[in-house]
Automatic annotation (TrEMBL):
The keyword Transmembrane applies. Keywords: Membrane, Transmembrane, Transmembrane helix. Residues 4-99 form the Methyltransferase type domain. It comes from the Bacteria. Gene3D superfamilies: Vaccinia Virus protein VP39. This is Methyltransferase type 11 domain-containing protein. It comes from Candidatus Vogelbacteria bacterium RIFOXYD2_FULL_44_9.
Length: 221
């Protein structure tokens, strides 16, 4: 199986897929990321993998080049989200698995509110309320989501409402076959892994699948 990891970062997911027998191509816009990915793949000793620098809004492969495309928390960084989605679906023969951050989870609200959900402190506790207000404002204004606004101003990091991705998939006439919350994690639960593990049993259920820190979508042509 030929797999494209679109926005591979430092190649962690790419290497995992290669270790399971896939023939993997990883692409990323960042030259340092690609250099680190190549180094990582050599360290673990996989040779059924290659990495290249590429723009996800203009993926340098022909139509239907891959059996599967995966993209984990990448589209939210693109200036043109819709173009990135179209390119992913263009180069896959049939299916793509796409994960993006979504806004309805309390951890997401902490992040867009200026805190870190895994840290306890005055700033983080206030961040969940500030993030909720930002989320509510975006909802009432009909916006796609909330930009976390970290790092460079020209690189967005938007936590979208779950239904936005579904509407984009429908708009492009692709088929959403299934989706689920990446995790139903809770903020400040540094010792609450058992609680989170219990909650994650329900991450594919109705209602709950919209409440993840991120959401994973399986999309087909």
């Amino acid at each position: 199986m030929r797999v494209l990891d679109a926005g591979c970062g430092e190649g962690v997911l790419s290497v995992m897929l290669a270790q399971r027998g896939a023939i993997v191509t990883g692409c990323d816009l960042s030259i340092p990321n690609i250099e680190n990915a190549r180094h990582h793949s050599k360290e673990v000793g996989v040779d059924n993998i290659e990495f290249l620098v590429a723009d996800l809004e203009n993926i340098p492969f022909a139509d239907s080049s891959f059996d599967l495309v995966v993209s984990s928390h990448v589209l939210e960084h693109l200036p043109d989200f819709d173009q990135g989605l179209r390119e992913i679906m263009r180069v896959t023969k049939r299916r793509a698995v796409i994960a993006i951050p979504t806004i309805l989870n309390p951890c997401s609200m902490v992040q867009v509110g200026g805190g870190w959900f895994y840290l306890k402190g005055p700033r983080s506790f206030l961040a969940v309320f500030w993030g909720f207000l930002k989320m509510f404002r975006a909802l009432t204004l009909g916006q796609e989501g909330v930009n976390e606004s970290y790092g460079r101003e020209d690189i967005p990091h938007i936590f979208r409402f779950p239904w936005i991705m579904k509407s984009k998939i429908n708009k492009e006439k692709f088929k959403l076959t299934e989706y689920e919350a990446s995790s139903l994690c809770l903020p400040y639960f540094s010792n609450g892994l058992l609680v989170i593990k219990f909650l994650d049993q329900y991450k594919s259920k109705k209602i709950f699948r919209n409440l993840g820190y991120g959401t994973t979508y399986v999309v087909e042509k």
